[in-house]
Structures are given as structure tokens and as C-alpha cells.
Amino acid sequence: MNLQAITDPFYAFLIFLAAAALDVLCAGVWLPVYYRFGIPLYSRRRRLNDLAGSEIETSRLAAALSERFRARPEHPSILFKALSEREIAAREKLFENRGGIRYLPVVHSLIRLHPERESVTVTGYINAYVLVALVYAAYRSTQETSFIPVALLILVVLGLSYAAQAGLNHHILDQITLDPP
User: Fold this and answer.
1) Is the dihedral of CA 69, 75, 77, 79 positive or negative?
2) If residue 79 lies in a helix (H) or strand (E), which one and from where to where?
3) Which of 19, 42, 62, 103 is buried most deeply by CB count within 10 Å?
4) pLDDT tens track for 123-132
5) What is the pTM of this model?
6) For the chain, which residues score pLDDT lower than 50?
7) How far is CA 119 from CA 38, 86, 125, 136, 176, in A?
């Protein structure tokens, strides 16, 4: 299959659907490698107080954060799962029917606790379907100038979704460092 065939809208859509299905599957089964590796779009580190850095148990923290980040008008339910003694995966609840602001999940997040440095890091890795959409929009825009408005619309929607998720990740970091469960 050549590049021209892959960039055909029908095949591009199939690749997009496959990437979206892969994201849903990996996120749904909490695949550790999915949360630990990728292209980071968001990364923030914050200092923990001396006591919190040594006493945090990730499974209890994950459960407490899941409770705190239930669906609200400004965001969907955020689920957390301990992957190790120092790592917690975070993602939106899949297919949740709720009111309020809606956005496309652009990133999936990993919270890393660093007790030796008395800090915590939240990193958001780009979802595969977003990468496919961006690459396709960029390529298609270089081939057909009439596609540029569509590419700009894709960028605006994904940019606004990213801003919502970055704000939510920042709030998660605040909850861990300023008001630990």
C-alpha cells in the first residue's frame, strides 16, 4: 500500500478508528506500558511536604482521587489506578453519559511520586487517535489548500480539549500536593 492510498479519506478514517479503538482498549484494561510511555504533551512537577512524600500509599491515593474527581459539570469522572508503589494512571471514564462541558480526551496521564525528591509529577501523553488526526490534517493540508480550514478546525477542537485536560491535570496535582487525601 502506498502513501497515496493511506491518505485516501476512507483509509485514513479506518486508521483513525483503529487508533481510537487501540486507545480505548489500552486505557480500559489499564495497560501499564500505555500509561508509562508516549509523547508527553503535559508535564508538571510539584514539591510534596516532607511528611506526604514518605507516607503516600498509591492504591489508597488512587481510590481517594477517583472519589474526588467524580463527574461534574466542568469535567467527566476521572478514574485513577495504582500501577506500582510510585505510579498512578489516570483517565476519563469511558462512555459516561453526563451533562456539562464535553471535550475529547487528548491525553492519558501518569502520576509519579518521587519520595526521595519529595515531589510528584503529572505527565499527560498524547492519545494515538489524536496523533493520527494531526498527522493526517497536516499532510492533507500540504496536498490540498482547500483542506486547510478543516485542519484548522481540528486544531481548534483538539487545542480546546487539551486546555481543558491540562487544567484538570493541574487541579489533580493541586489535590495531591495542597490537599492530600
Assistant:
1) negative
2) strand 78-82
3) 62
4) 999 999 999 9
5) 0.88
6) 51, 53
7) 22, 11, 20, 38, 10
